[in-house]
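Long-time lurker. I teach an intro course on protein structure, and each term I like to show students one example going from raw sequence to a predicted 3D structure in token notation. This year I'd like something fresh instead of my usual example. Would anyone be willing to generate the tokens for the chain below so I can use it in lecture? Attribution to the forum is fine with me.
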Amino acid sequence: MKPWCRLLGIGLAVGTALVTVHVTHRPDAEAPARIAQFGATNPAPDAVPVFARRWITPPGHTASAHSSAICTLPSGDLLAVWYGGSREGAADVALFTSRLPAGETAWTAPVRTMDREKAQDELDRVIKKVGNAVAFADPTGTLWLVYVSVSVGGWSGSALNVTTSRDEGRTWGESMRLTLNPFLNLSSLVRNKPIFAGDGRIGLPIYHEMAAKFPQMLWLTPAAGGGLEEYRIRNLASQPGLIQPVLVPLEDDRVLMLLRDRGEDRNVHLAYSDDNGWTWSEALPTGLPNPDAAVDALRLRDGRILIAYNDAERGRENLRLALSGDEGRTWEAGTMLEAEPHEEFSYPNLAEDRRGRIHLTYTWRRERIRHIMFNLAWLDARTIARDMSHP
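-- Reply from a regular --
Happy to contribute to a lecture. Here you go:
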């Protein structure tokens, strides 16, 4: 990197930190009192193991497909979002959504939900490309879509935008661009699902990627009639190179954060919050390898934490599950879901449905988005590290 570029990046990062401190120390910026729990409604898990593999994207739908996210809807349907086009970062890339109706086994045909032209029209600015998106339903039933757009440069020149839906993603309101950083509002990205505070606020994990790469928390306050009333950003103390934070609510006001490692440690890192995601401990390595790739995690009904990750320090040639019974301090390696030399299986995303079944979507060879569904009985029946990498 040229010296002037490095200095500019450091200046942007420092400026971001200063502005954030100023905003978040206002008297009305307080930690949430508790984390709201909602979602699964059936307290009795299946006794018989259940496992299924499905495709979300049809063959040849787009040449490249990546960065899927999945969420449960108030109706019981599932919704997936991802981006696809000729290649990552191309002008023809669009965000697509598909749904799996409750009780059905086939995903609906992909719907082109957001693209460069539509974003330009709604945001009233030049958009070069769109990228990562996350979708989630809040406790009122409003469905949110937060997505990345880039007007100049690469991903480090990105901004975040929000749109909402009152009909589970069949129609969407107009996009709103969030102003999160000073100096041209550059370098805010999103990847993983939020936590929901008892006072109605939404705590969305995001990250900054220009020069000094670090995690952040974006607190969204929904408006009474739908949409966004207010938002605040908080920087999190961490060593450089930790991005794409994953949040897992625990008990007693505690939240676990897992982080992708872009540094030399090549290890999934973790941090804890004792005030519902407002402030965080120092991030430490978990012992799980990380080849500079996204992970996702989910707290199961029995209190264990499930993680999906690439079990390697280099490359994304496999995808594995692991379990922790002590809030992420130690991990037991589990089933290998995919493994094939020189291929890519990456960017896992997890959700639990009303029946307590677990859903995982991920990038398959950068060509398609795959979906795996299983239950706790299947998870417990698997022998440790058994290979499940059949087509």
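Some talking points for your students: Helices lie at 3-24, 116-123, 376-381. The chain has a mean pLDDT of 89.
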